[in-house]
Amino acid sequence: MFFFIPCQVGAERVLKAEIAELYHFNSAFSRPGFVTFKVPDELSSYDAIRETTSQVAERSIFARMVSFSLGKLSSENLVESVWGLVSPTQYFINRVHVFCRDEFVPGQNGFEPFVPAGLIELHREIVRLSPRPKFLGVDAEQFNRPAIAGETVLDVVQVDVDLFFVGVHFVKENSPIHALYSGGIIPIEFPADAVSRAWLKFEEGLRWSRFPIDSNSCCVDIGSSPGGGSQVLLSRGAEVWGVDPAEMSEIVLNNPRFKHIRGRINQTRRSLYKKVQWIIADMNVAPKYTLDVLEDVVKFNSKIRGMLFTLKLSQLELSRNIPQFLKRIKSWGFEKVKVKQLVFNRQEVMVAAKKQ
Fold first, then answer.
1. In the CATH hierarchy, which top-level class contains the domain 2-184?
2. Do residues 2 and 168 lie in contact, with contact meaning Cβ atoms separated by under 8 Å?
3. Nearest-angstrom CA–CA distance, 166 and 163
4. Where in the chain is the domain with CATH 3.40.50.150?
5. What are the tens digits of pLDDT across the range 92-111?
6. Residue 35 forms beta bridges with which residues?
7. For 292-325, what is each residue's pLDDT tens digit?
């Protein structure tokens, strides 16, 4: 018996090391962006599988989602065979997720994680032929309808041209948002006027963090140029101050709720940030420098409610330092701190830190 986990292409090695350290699970079959792990015999019961898949998805930095494998199939008679794998089990399927592993790193050659049209059609066929339709959730035939708490999800992932893995995962009240969507890919449409990929990262980051940023919020965007992250905050009605020595996009500058403070954050007067409640940051520097900059701001302003920022990892193996980074952030008074390599991150992780 196995768990399977999709991840970012290139992150397989650190994912294996992370799961081995957290749970002592041995990795088995793998492809770029996809890894399986052997399930110990003591975790073979229904309750243990349900709890462990949810726990691994929540604790792992590099796993997009986690599914308990029911088996693997070829494309021949795939739809009928999928339900054949489910029928001997005690699982009552409420929703179906169909996806494929990534081909490239996000942002490489214009690639962004997505579910191809052919697999969306496969989803419809699998749902249509469910032998137990009365158990399907509301709008189960709609591909991007999110799963809800209490549902059991059937996962069908295309790993190679003629190789599919089939599994199940369970959605709980506190499940990460990525567990609600096929392959952990939140359906985010990149707007035509987005000025950079930072828009994708921070749109996903705000949905993942569930930070309540709205028209009553005042935010600072550190390293804001050309303005993708600021756009996300502005779209929620927030007042945004972008701090960066480089130029901002005219699209952002023309928004009356945006102010550009041209310069480096350590060259500006801290008194400017007295009313700021939220910080986002996406700086192409070493993690220690990012944390030094953030510490300088939050120690001056006790009104800061939360921070959402990236930590660049020049080598993914630097992830072993993440526990130290989180300990440092908590020492600033942020009780709730979590970290994840989001779907639209590159060689970096996103950190969400919030005070009670």
1. alpha beta
2. no
3. 10
4. 198-354
5. 999 999 999 999 999 999 99
6. 5, 30
7. 999 999 988 888 999 999 999 999 889 999 999 9
Q: pLDDT tens digits, residue range 204-258?
A: 999 999 999 999 999 999 999 999 999 999 999 999 999 999 999 999 999 999 9
pLDDT digits (tens, 9 = 90+) for 41-84: 888 888 999 999 999 999 999 999 999 999 999 999 999 999 99
User: Which structure tokens are listed for 333?
Assistant: 């008074």
HEC assignment per residue over the chain: CEEEEECCCCCHHHHHHHHHHHHCCCEEEEECCEEEEECCHHHCCHHHHHHHHHHHHHHCCCCCCCEEEEEEECCCCHHHHHHHHHCCCCCCCCEEEEEECCCCCCCHHHCCCCCCHHHHHHHHHHHHCCCCHHHCCCCCCCCCCCCCCCCEEEEEEEEECCEEEEEEEECCCCCCHHHHCHHHCCCCCCCCCCCCCHHHHHHHHHHHHCCCCCCCCEEEEECCCCCHHHHHHHHCCCEEEEECCCCCCHHHHCCCCEEEECCCHHHCCHHHHCCCCEEEECCCCCHHHHHHHHHHHHCCCCCCCEEEEEEECCCHHHHHHHHHHHHHHHCCCCCEEEEECCCCCCCEEEEEEECC
Asked if 79 contacts 126 with a C-beta cutoff of 8 angstroms, the reply is yes
List the end-to-end C-alpha distance of the chain, in Å, as a whole number: 40
Tokens of 168: 């199940």
Supply 290's token pair.
Answer: 């990012």
Tokens of 198: 């930072």
Instruction: Tell me where in the chain the CATH 3.30.2130.30 domain(s) lie.
Output: 2-184
Query: CATH number of 198-354: 3.20.20.70, 3.40.50.150, 1.10.8.10, 3.90.1310.10?
Result: 3.40.50.150
pLDDT in tens, 156-199: 999 999 999 999 999 999 999 999 999 999 999 999 999 999 99
How buried is residue 173: exposed, middle or buried, by Cβ count under 10 Å (0-12/13-18/19+)?
Answer: exposed
Q: 176: cis peptide before it, omega within 30°?
A: no
